[in-house]
Specification:
By secondary structure, this protein is an all-alpha fold. The protein is 54% helix and 2% strand. A hairpin with a 5-residue loop joins strand 1 and strand 2 (238-240).
Length: 250
């Protein structure tokens, strides 16, 4: 109601801030569809706002199924003068391009209910929660979802495999992803983070899966967990930007 009221009285900045705040909550709570709905509303409210277009692109990637549209939004945000390090924007564009060209891939981030730029600690916690929730030996357990969480962790829990999944890389990294999703699981036994069943921790990863052919560097920090900053446009009006560091979120 407050968002609608702000929009009706022409307070676009307030409406955008409220939509972004609610979208951030959905995004960090593992609700990508709700986050996408808020990002769409913000972009419709201010189609020439670079930050809104960037947020819409990220929401599309996290919800899944709109990789091409996400790439177009990223290009539009860059054209509109997004106040963000160009190298970081290029990383997001490379991710969108890679995922657009791999429509058959599984959305591992959505499976674990984490943002694309989640920290390793957040990733591990999400995996453990999913494994406990869906373990087939527990009441209400689900074998298919349990195995999906296992497969997601096999990729996202390893830095090199995660980069290969995001940006493209050696086929060994992608093969490991496929193998993890097909591997049989023993009932009553949950694998530890980063451990393939039947192997010790740290084993089972091929030499080639530890390196990417084109290493994009650290996965960048989320722009959504820090307050937005403002910058002046050439005409003296204020346009919203996004503070987006190049280091991994901690």
């Amino acid at each position: 109601a407050e968002i609608d009221a702000a929009a009706r009285r022409g307070d676009t900045a307030r409406a955008l801030a409220l939509l972004e705040s609610r979208g951030d909550h959905h995004r960090l709570s593992g609700e990508p569809d709700a986050a996408l709905a808020d990002a769409r509303a913000a972009a419709e409210l201010a189609p020439q706002d670079a930050a809104a277009r960037f947020r819409l692109a990220v929401a599309r990637l996290e919800a899944g199924g709109e990789d091409y549209q996400a790439l177009m939004d990223l290009r539009a945000a860059k054209y509109l003068g997004l106040s963000m390090d160009a190298e970081v924007v290029d990383q997001w564009m490379r991710r969108a391009q890679n995922w657009r060209d791999r429509p058959e891939r599984k959305n591992h981030y959505r499976t674990l209910g984490v943002p694309i730029d989640a920290s390793p600690e957040a990733m591990k916690q999400a995996y453990r929660q999913a494994a406990l929730r869906w373990h087939p030996d527990k009441p209400g357990g689900d074998t298919e979802r349990f195995q999906a969480a296992q497969a997601a962790w096999e990729v996202l829990g390893d830095e090199a495999r995660r980069r290969a999944y995001d940006f493209g890389g050696p086929q060994a990294g992608l093969a490991a992803e496929a193998a993890a999703s097909r591997a049989p699981r023993r009932r009553g036994r949950s694998q530890g983070p980063g451990q393939v069943e039947g192997q010790g921790a740290g084993q089972g990863r091929s030499r080639s899966s530890r390196h990417c052919a084109r290493d994009p560097g650290p996965i960048p920090q989320s722009p959504f967990v820090h307050p937005s900053h403002y910058r002046k446009a050439d005409e003296g009006s204020r346009r919203r930007g996004v503070s987006y560091g190049g280091e991994r979120a901690r």
